Structures are given as C-alpha cells and as structure tokens.
C-alpha cells in the first residue's frame, strides 16, 4: 500500500448556495389566488414565464380572476388547483387557513406546499402578530398536511407592488424556511424568477413565527412612511 492509497478520499467542494434548480417547467398553484396577495403572486410568476393556476372556493371566480391576469394563468376550484399543480402556494386569509388546508389534505398529499400566510390581528393601535397554537401558520400547515412537503416563504411582499404592471422589478429578498433543503431550494429558485427578488434560505419551520410576525412591523413602516417596504438582507 502506498502513502497515497492510505490517504482518505478528498471531500467534495461545498455547493454554491446560489446554485438553484431549474423550476421553469413546474406548474404553480395559488390557493387564495383571487385575493390581493395571491393574485399579485400569480401575476408576477406568470409574467416570469411560470405556468400558474389560481384556486378559489368557486371555479367561476377563479376563472374570472385568471382572465383578468392574462396569458399563462388558469382558474379552477381549490381542489382542482391543488391536484394539477407541482407547487402550491397558500395565500388564503388567516381566518380560513386551517379549514382550507384540512379540506385539501388528500389533494395536497405529496405536493410541495409554500405557506405565505401571516397570522395578524388589528386594533386601534395597528397590526400585531398572533401566535397560533402550533407556533406559526407554516407549522399549522405542516401539522394539518402530514403527507405534504411544507415550506414557508413570500411573507413580506407588497400586494400593491406585485399587481402594478408598471413596475418591472421588485427589489426584495424572500426568506424561505423548511425542513428539507432541496425543497427550500426549489422555492428559492421560484422566488428568484421574479425580477429583483432573491430567494434566501432562512432556517427550519420552527423559526417561521418571527418571519410571519415581521409583517406587523412592515405595516407600521409603510403607514408611517407611505411606502411599500420589503426586506433586503445584507452581506450575502
């Protein structure tokens, strides 16, 4: 045995964290796609060349919204949207979050689910974060969808900017959380298809609460400065 033979094999070079998969061929469903946030995400993703299906409780309402958004967007009821999509973004109101996911457990089995719901309350002092029993909306989704691959992302995007056709780029970062790094990278890649955005890995689902809660702070910022603030991470 030579000295070379006795040496351990060289370790592979670490993967570049900005090397992300090609997601251009995946179909993206948006549950709650007739609301402001869901409609805005559907519009931006379709504009970036993604095939998008808007989901709503009624197929007619979804199809009407899809026609308004234009090419690359279809409308369907929530169940059909979930069945036909590779990735499903959950953008429903917090009040209907649990019931919607519970009713679609079978259709969402095996799917990559991206929860972007922010549990918030409002009173005369403004917006404030709610703490779900499970810890966060994303963790509630994971508990209700044990056969799905749940991630969290797209929390800090302005619906006004998303829906404005005059805005070509939205300069913001999208924090992505999840238990499986490969799933997070798919969502990061999806976010990065929208001009100006970067998808950034930000930890496991147990850290989703503070990401969701930050929206209450952004609402205060936007009201004070009459802005549509997002989040940009430095030094990466």
UniProtKB/TrEMBL annotation:
Residues 28-119 form the Pyrroline-5-carboxylate reductase catalytic N-terminal domain. Keywords: Oxidoreductase. It comes from the Bacteria. It holds the Pfam family F420_oxidored. SUPFAM superfamilies: NAD(P)-binding Rossmann-fold domains. The keyword Oxidoreductase applies. NCBIfam families: npdG (TIGR01915). This is NADPH-dependent F420 reductase. It comes from Streptomyces durbertensis.
């Amino acid at each position: 045995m030579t000295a070379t033979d006795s040496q351990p094999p060289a370790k592979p070079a670490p993967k570049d964290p900005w090397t992300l998969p090609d997601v251009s061929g995946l179909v993206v469903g948006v549950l709650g796609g007739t609301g402001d946030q869901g409609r805005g995400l559907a519009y931006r993703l379709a504009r970036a060349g993604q095939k998008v299906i808007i989901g709503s409780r009624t197929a007619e309402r979804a199809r009407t919204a899809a026609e308004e958004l234009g090419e690359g967007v279809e409308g369907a009821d929530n169940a059909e949207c979930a069945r036909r999509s590779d990735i499903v973004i959950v953008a429903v109101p917090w009040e209907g979050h649990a019931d919607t996911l519970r009713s679609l457990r079978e259709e969402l089995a095996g799917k990559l689910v991206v929860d972007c719901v922010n549990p918030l309350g409002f009173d005369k002092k403004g917006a404030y974060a709610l703490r779900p029993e499970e810890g966060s909306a994303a963790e509630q989704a994971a508990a209700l969808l044990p056969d799905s691959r749940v991630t969290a992302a797209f929390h800090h995007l302005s619906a006004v900017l998303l829906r404005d056709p005059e805005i070509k780029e939205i300069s913001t970062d999208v924090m992505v959380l999840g238990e499986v790094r490969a799933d997070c990278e798919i969502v990061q890649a999806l976010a990065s298809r929208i001009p100006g955005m970067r998808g950034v890995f930000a930890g496991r689902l147990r850290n989703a609460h503070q990401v969701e809660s930050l929206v209450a702070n952004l609402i205060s910022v936007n009201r004070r400065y009459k802005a549509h603030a997002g989040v940009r991470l430095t030094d990466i």
